[in-house]
Amino acid sequence: MTRHLHLNAFLMSTGHHEASWRLPESDPYAHVDLAHYVRLARTAERGTFDSLFLADGPQLWSSVGQRPAGALEPLTLLTALATATEHIGLIATASTSYNSPYNLARKFASLDIISGGRAGWNIVTTAGAEAARNFGLDAEPAHAERYARAAEFLDVALKLWDSWEDDAIVADKAAGVWGDDAKIHPPRHKGTYFSVEGALNVPRSPQGYPLLVQAGSSEDGKRFAARHAEAVFTAQQTVEDARAFYADLKSRTAREGRNPDHIKVLPGIVPVVGSTEAEARAHEQELEDHIVHTHGVAHLERLLHLEPGALDLDAPLPDDLPPESAIEGAKSRYTLIVRLARRERLTVRQLIGRLGGGRGHLTFTGTPEQVADAVETWFTQGAADGFNIMPPVLPSGLDAFVDHVVPLLRARGLLRTEYGPRQTLRERYGLPRPANQHVPELPAALPQPSSALV
Amino acid sequence: MTRHLHLNAFLMSTGHHEASWRLPESDPYAHVDLAHYVRLARTAERGTFDSLFLADGPQLWSSVGQRPAGALEPLTLLTALATATEHIGLIATASTSYNSPYNLARKFASLDIISGGRAGWNIVTTAGAEAARNFGLDAEPAHAERYARAAEFLDVALKLWDSWEDDAIVADKAAGVWGDDAKIHPPRHKGTYFSVEGALNVPRSPQGYPLLVQAGSSEDGKRFAARHAEAVFTAQQTVEDARAFYADLKSRTAREGRNPDHIKVLPGIVPVVGSTEAEARAHEQELEDHIVHTHGVAHLERLLHLEPGALDLDAPLPDDLPPESAIEGAKSRYTLIVRLARRERLTVRQLIGRLGGGRGHLTFTGTPEQVADAVETWFTQGAADGFNIMPPVLPSGLDAFVDHVVPLLRARGLLRTEYGPRQTLRERYGLPRPANQHVPELPAALPQPSSALV
Lengths: 454, 454
What we know:
The structure is a homodimer.
Chain A: E1 6-10, H1 34-46, E2 51-54, H2 74-84, E3 89-95, H3 101-114, E4 119-124, H4 129-132, H5 143-161, E5 169-172, E6 177-179, E7 189-190, E8 195-196, E9 211-214, H6 219-228, E10 231-234, H7 239-255, E11 264-273, H8 277-289, H9 293-303, H10 331-343, H11 348-358, E12 362-366, H12 368-380, E13 386-389, H13 396-411, H14 425-428, H15 450-453
Parallel strand pairs in A: 1-2, 1-13, 2-3, 3-4, 4-9, 9-10, 10-11, 11-12, 11-13
Antiparallel strand pairs in A: 5-6, 7-8
């Protein structure tokens, strides 16, 4: 079977470039406009993407002055999009630090049922004190503790999703028996962070449970991904770094006793597409010209855990930045930014320009052929199973990718030309439906005793 | 302006009668079938109902043997229904005991935005140890504590919904200023049950916040309703009881300094409709014949806080039941059931038959004219501002009400004949849009100094 690219559309209000909302074409209210997202979802479906995805954090950034802030709650928005689409997977970010397993497991099961098996969960632990203070805490929990809680959260969620066997409903009207109580398995979980006694109040969903997605690239994050994730979003700046990450994650997954084909690695790319290279560069420059650098400096200072005023716009990063191990927030993103600035000897102003597009994700700027070439290189050279497509401006950047890059990928045999029959999200990603932990699996194929009969 | 009935469609899988799922027409998988609910919602919209409503509790009842158990999570299902309807309000039940204010406030704001101002929140405190044990507690919190937490929860939620002024988004592309930070008001709430620091990450929604609905009729429940609720669901067995409840709640509301017209009282009714009275009675009997009495006894024993085996099917209720004040669960429902059994001298078997339709809500059995007469009597005699319609069987019971009772109510001038222009749910219920607590209200109409000029 031909290996195909897996494409995910990472949707974000007016686009991933921080200045995108200032362009004449952009709707500054797009972040709360269902019609905007319906249009994007249908465009991604026209491009036969595997899935679309919404990032999230349960807090408002400190200033709304800079750019569109806030967003519709992802599970709510994806439920609405489920009714407006037919094939595309729907991946919502949700935090293990600021949800309870019972409520969240139920919401994902409900979305999976309503969408006919198209739900995915981007599992995040949520860095930052702002979020913590919205949930009764004074400061953010330590990185390792957030991951310990995430592991237990997922364990409980899996118990809840498996608390109904697939055939627990017998619906015997004549006997007056609706369900088989022997096929209901209450978790009776008592752990460090959670106690959850009873079975979920939703039957097992089409996929069993949502596709498990993960996006942390720290040590804790990679360990978690190797154990649990079925798709991984990652930020990589060079094909060499991406290959190293890919090989590392696949081998970690194998060491956890899992099939390395059952974890799909999707680096993020910001495709800035133009009909000529010059046109693409001009578009990139137009976006960069709209960056408000004072905002960018403040944002970078927060990301690097520096005091306000610590950075000089026209100087390089200071030499005495702390190591990643001292960072409790978004560890791997921290390292990526520092390495990018040092490798390319960027001033703070230049760094802000480079980060403006994708916050650390790679920007590909060029013609459709050049973008398709880059995608093909990464895909065929062991750096990616597919891509997390992060258009700099929405909707136009997704239109450009689907109308001009997708046909090239199809012509090269790298991407499906149509969806074919309805599939679950897990089937689109080439993954098996998970067995229920309470149901012994049948051997896939018993050895045939044919030779004895010859 | 003519006073019109407010109708709410209380949707529940195959219907409100506990045996409804056993009828030949019923789909035992209806509880997780979006198409079933879309059909019901569109039928209610054909009947120009104000709203539809989903009950909920975050637990699975102990046995799935008896009847369809579990449900799609209400906010998820209502989001999907928002995209399939245009006018009808969408009221979700959600618990103040087992949610966090930040997450829940955001979900309701998102639904309100996606639906164009049609969201409502049925505020419940969630009785029962089963739910408590799914959220890390050993036993259910005491009734009074649940209500204290509910009051603080609502206070925080209102602060979150008001944390953006309506005109906080300025969208000045030229200046690069998206929002006005002076119009963002972080709650900075530190209370007994919750600490919530930051502003919501969704702008203020079309209604400001969802319609606030309440359904507890205990002392704590009525006090909460008088202070906060804009619509109240209640179970009343006689017009006299309903009138007393109505008068009491309106006067409590006035004593809280609120306009008593701004709380709408909607008793629940289970309309068993037939083209003749005999046909309606036969339908009721068919349903009663499908009740499995052993299940009914067990359920009644739980409701009355009795040991298993305490009730005798063919005897009346025991004399020595505890008073309502000793009940920590659903207090007012307890009293209603005991009073019903004693007033009508019912055996346990007869009581189970009477409760089978609406779990304590009044069953009206008769022709469309008889049902319309009863509705009109309650509505015009100070017992109701409208009704919570609880069809015994779905979809057929809602079809019968909309096709045969609704035209009579319209002909009598009691119900709107069409929706007219799009309105928010609060406008449908004749309620004003709530002001933002951070914005001083302008005087409605300044006294005109006209006489001085004469």
